[in-house]
Every structure is written in C-alpha cells, then in structure tokens.
Amino acid sequence: MASHIVGYPRMGPKRELKFALESFWDKKSSAEDLQKVATELRASIWKQMAGAGIKYIPSNTFSYYDQVLDTATMLGAVPPRYNYGGGEIGFDVYFSMARGNASVPAMEMTKWFDTNYHFIVPELGPEVKFSYASHKAVNEYKEAKELGVDTVPVLVGPVSFLLQSKPAKGVEKSFPLLSLLDKILPIYKEVIAELKAAGASWIQFDEPTLVLDLESHQLDAFTKAYAELESSLSGLNVLVETYFADVPAGAFKTLTTLKGVTAFGFDLVRGTKTIELIKGEYPSGKYLFAGVVDGRNIWANDLSASLSTLQSLEGIVGKDKLVVSTSCSLLHTAVDLVNEPKLDKEIKSWLAFAAQKVVEVDALAKALAGQKNEEIFSANAAALASRKSSPRVNNEAVQKAAAALKGSEHRRATTVSARLDAQQKKLNLPILPTTTIGSFPQTIELRRVRREYKANKISEDDYIKAIKEEISKVVKLQEELDIDVLVHGEPERNDMVEYFGEQLSGFAFTANGWVQSYGSRCVKPPIIYGDVSRPKPMTVFWSTAAQSFTKRPMKGMLTGPVTILNWSFVRNDQPRFETCYQIALAIKDEVEDLEKAGITVIQIDEAALREGLPLRKAEHAFYLDWAVHSFRITNTGVQDTTQIHTHMCYSNFNDIIHSIINMDADVITIENSRSDEKLLSVFREGVKYGAGIGPGVYDIHSPRIPSTEEIADRINKMLAVLDTNILWVNPDCGLKTRKYGEVKPALQNMVEAAKVIRTQLASAK
C-alpha cells in the first residue's frame, strides 16, 4: 500500500533557513551560503521521508519565501517596478517582490486560505508578459534524483494561481484574471516537458481553490486548463491535490472528470463530507490520495479510526488505487518531537509533529497492506486513552463559567459615539491622533536578556531592571517623536500569543515547535490541551511600570481570544468556540485588572479574526457570531472612559466589515497600506463607520522608509472617505521585526505627516 506526503516544513528543525535568510538579507553571508543551507535542508527532508518508507515524496515544496511567489517567478509575472530585465529570476528581484527595497514597496501579502501562513499576492493584468523565468521545480527534482530519491514535483495549479492573484495597480478591478489562462498554460507545458525529460513519472498540481464556493465559469476554467494540458501530461501520472475543507459536490464532479488526471487528493480531516461524495460516485481506475493524517494540528492520529476509514475507501477504489496521505502540507505543523526533551511526557505522548506524522502515514499504509505494527497501534491507543481520561484536561469551574455566558450578547451599555466623547474629555487627544500597534524592535541584547532569564543565568531582579530600562527607552523615543498614545514596546514578549499562553492554565509550550508564518518569520504556537483560565494578572505589572514613565496615555497590550485560539494548536476534543469563550473570560479578568490599575487605553488585538473565517460562505455566520461575541466578552464591563482598541492585519476585511463594526471596539487599527488601500474601498462604497479607525499608513514588513509626503497622501485618501474626528494615524502592524534605523525615521515621517494634515485642516476652517 502506497503512502504520500503533500508537503513538508521548510525552515528546518532548528530554523536553519530562517537564520540563513536573515544573514543573507543583512549582507553578512553570500547567496552561495544561503543556497548551501537550503540544499542541505532539502536533502535531509527527502532522505528522511525515503527512510520512513514514503513512496510519493514531494519536491518543489521548499521555498525561500513562499510557493505562490515561486509560481509567479516561474511564470515571469514580475511587476514593472522591480525592473526585471528577463532571463532567470535571481534573489535580487525575488526578494524585492517579497520584501520591497529602498525604492519600491513589496507586493501585497495575505493569509493562505484560513491558515496563519502568508503568501505574496501576484499582480496580474492584460499587459503582463509571461515567460519561463524560474527553473526551480525542475532543478529540485533533478537534485533529489541525484540523491537517489525519485520525487513528485509539486506545482501550484494554474487555476488556483490565477484565482489567488489580483489585478495589478492601474488594471480595472473587474479584470477577469482567468482570461490569462491561455497565456500561462504554455509555460506550464514547458515545465512539464522538462520534468518529463528529467525522468519524472508523477506530477502534483495543488488546486486548493476547489474547496471554495466557486461559480460555474470558475469551475469551467479547471476543465479547460487540464484539457489543454492533457497532451503535455501524457505519460505522466497526474495528481490534483485539494485541502483545507470539503470539496463541494459541483467541484467534486468537475475535479473527478478532468482530462489527463490520474489521481485526486482530498483533505479527509477537515473535509469529512467529501467521504460521502467518494462513496457516492468515484471514477473507476483513478487513484485516491486519502488525507487522513492531519497536516494542520499536532495531535496524534487516531490510527484505528483512520484505518477503518481507509478500509471503507479501499472497498470503493480498490487496494492498488488507494494512497495514504496527509490532509495538507505539513508546513502548518511543527517539525519534530525529538527536539522537545523538556516537554511534559504525558502531553508529549498525545502529540505528533511533522516527523511523527510521516511515521503515522507509513504505519497506516503498512497496516492497510496487512503489515500492521501492533506496537505502534497499541502505543497510539494508550496515548489516546490517557488524554481522554487525564484530570489536567478538564476544569469544572471553567466549564460552568463558559456555559453561563449563553443568553447574553455582552455589549457595553452606551453607544460608541457617547463613549468616544467621554474618552476625549479624559484623554484630550488632537485630531488625527498618532500611535503604534504595540511592539518595538527586538534587539539582540533584549533577546539575550530574555534567553538568559529563562535559562536562570540572571536573577529576576536583574531581568526586571533590564526590561524596565528597555521600556523607558521606548517611552522616551515615542515622546521625542511626539506620538500621542504610547505603547511599552513589549520587550518582555517573544511572541504575542506565546506570552499569554505561558501564563494561562490549559496551555503547553515547546522549545522548538516553530512554524513558518511568512519568509523568515516563524511562530511557536502554544498547545491548548485543556480548559483555560487565568491564575493571576499577566500584564498589569509591565503596563503600570510603563505608564509611570510618562504622562501621555499608555496602552495596555493584550492578545484577543480569537487570535490566541487561531494562532495556537487547539484541542480537538471539543468545539473551537467553547475553547474561545474560556479564553475570553481569562482576558476579561485581565482587562478589568488593567482598568483598576489606571490604564485608560487597552488594546485587545484580534489580528487573526478574519483568518479563522471558514472557507465556505454557509459557515461564515456561525463563526463570526461566536468570534465577535468572544471579543465583546473581554471588555463588556469597563467604564465609558476606558478606550478599547483592537488591531487586525494581513487579510481581506471588506467582506466582514459589518462584523468588525459589531465588535463594538472604540478604535480599530487595521492593515491597509500593503494591500494598496483595499480597505478604503468599502467606505467609498457607503459603509458608515462611527468608531475610531486607523488604517495603516505604511507597511512595516518592508525595510523601506516611506516619506512624509507619501504618508500625508495616504492620510488625505483616508479623509476622503472617513470623518476627521474618527481617523487615527498608525503603521500597518507591530514593529518587532524591524530595526531602529528603519523605525525611527519612518515614525518621524508619520508624525510629521499627521501634523502637516492637521495644519492644513485648521487653515481650511
């Protein structure tokens, strides 16, 4: 029985690629050094999977930044501002597209479906001159073959590529991106021809957009694309892979009738309804790649249940046509439990990271073939039983408190306009008040202090002194820049979710459970294994210390319940909304303690609210109802004079703007600049927003420093659709990934731009 892995983490078990990328970007190492690290990582991954017995091993799932950007470069789809002159695209153009450079901004970055992984959004239009400009897919196939590993090259499918793109600046928003299909298919044919010539016998096209609510003309594009590719694909086994949700009935029919395709891959973890479609009508003689091992969470598979599912599918498609697979790429999970020697042994037995999931896939394939490893299956059953019965999972008091939430909407007693009036009397802010989102640059020295404190190399007193000194510097800098509402810079936090999870019950933490978010940015999601509560205050000490350094308003900085949920590995033994309500109650306690301590502005970040939106429209209302409700729970009890902020970033918010309004925050800061001010269009179309709002005026994920004039121009565009008395001026996101040499001049220009516009508005009266 055959086995398959959709994709594998790229960063390496100890984030080797992250450090190599950052060293290269900082000009501390060469392109050859970076390529050497990448080559070693790829070789290790391929050999690991081959050694584990996996038959269908992917290649071209490695990336220096993002697989969609890789596809754009393969097609030569480079926006003119990057001055691409033709030929093979090198690192200069590639990383300028991803990160921007001193003279031009980066391309838009947004979330990959409903994950915390980000991709670079291709900018397309009728004038784009496509060309075969990156041979990465073929080169990596050859590289693996030289190591003795015959892989399945993976390409982002042509239709999903176009559907995940956007019209370039200057191109009508209504431009039909699928009209470019005829222009990109010849390049796909070239790639296929080279892969065949190199000896490939299988090829995998990732077409995840098939799980979305597609219109008939979009489904027709799949039929057209694969009919056009059929002759080029002749002689190859072709897998079309889907993931992240059920495949709707119409899309299932389109998919399973595609010409030239010999295999179909399905996510049977998040897409259990697809099993019924497979049982109803599956094309004879086609392979079924059954994604029964979860690629998006870290819980050990229920091997017996998965084996039962596979056996039922075997009766439909035949023993020789069933392939055991992961539900999606393992990119979304941590790398290897071997790197977690300090993790609690009981909890560790409940988990499976990417390396363990490879073993699970192989164990299931062998069991299906009659070679069941009883030791593996017995250990798995014991771990599942241990988790189910463990007293550390359940807390009756927490469950009762969450259950008591039902029946109330948890809204503040007065309207947002009345609250804003009360807050202005207390805060006395100028029009167009300036602020930042929370974090300031995390210096090498600051990271050293945190690391040494965790390792017990410095005392708690020394740690507190060092962090207070850093907060004092950040506060002084903001005062010198004349920012109106300050932040403490979050020097005590490595990660906004990890920091809170470490102080909440029901959470476990890893030493090396890193997951790629974008580029070199990695996060270490907490593991929510049990009921959640807050044993003691989490931020009050640092927030009050920061407020003592200034007379200006200091924001208390919290991460909201929905974001903590969506950026964690969440328990799978109860509905997600129940866990979210538990987290909301914990954050509510913290909000009320901050208010009692004299903090008058409290930001509750919900950066990931949009990211958790289900992929199918029919499921949107239920999710948004409990997600927005969870946010309101956190601050329902505060006084009118306490100003509640929230922050959102790097998603398309236009389709949920009414839910954002329903959150009833006093002020929302929201990503805007990197997405070409897409957010503003919703206000141009007539949506009325009465709370404070700060659409980001510059992109913090690029090292580029925007000019005062550029920021002022952005503010004026905002004022064309938003009232002066509700507009805030702020960056797109937190500043932790930037250097002070970039942050200081950018913020200086931001404040100066706000002052310029204030002067203009005053003189216009």
UniProtKB/TrEMBL annotation:
Q: Which residues bind Zn(2+) 1?
A: 647, 649, 671, 733
Tell me which residues make up the Cobalamin-independent methionine synthase MetE C-terminal/archaeal domain.
432-755
Look up the record and give one Gene Ontology term from the biological process aspect. Answer: methylation
Cofactor(s) the record lists: Zn(2+)
| Enzyme Commission numbers on file | 2.1.1.14
Which residues participate in Zn(2+) 2 binding?
658
Q: Which InterPro entries match?
A: Cbl-indep_Met_Synth_N, Cobalamin-indep_Met_synthase, Met_Synth_C/arc, UROD/MetE-like_sf
Task: Please give the pathway this protein is involved in.
Answer: Amino-acid biosynthesis; L-methionine biosynthesis via de novo pathway; L-methionine from L-homocysteine (MetE route): step 1/1
Q: Which EC class, in a word? A: transferase
- On the tree of life, the source organism's domain of life is Eukaryota
Q: Does the keyword Cytoplasm apply?
A: no
* Name of the protein in question: 5-methyltetrahydropteroyltriglutamate--homocysteine S-methyltransferase
| Originating species | Gentiana triflora
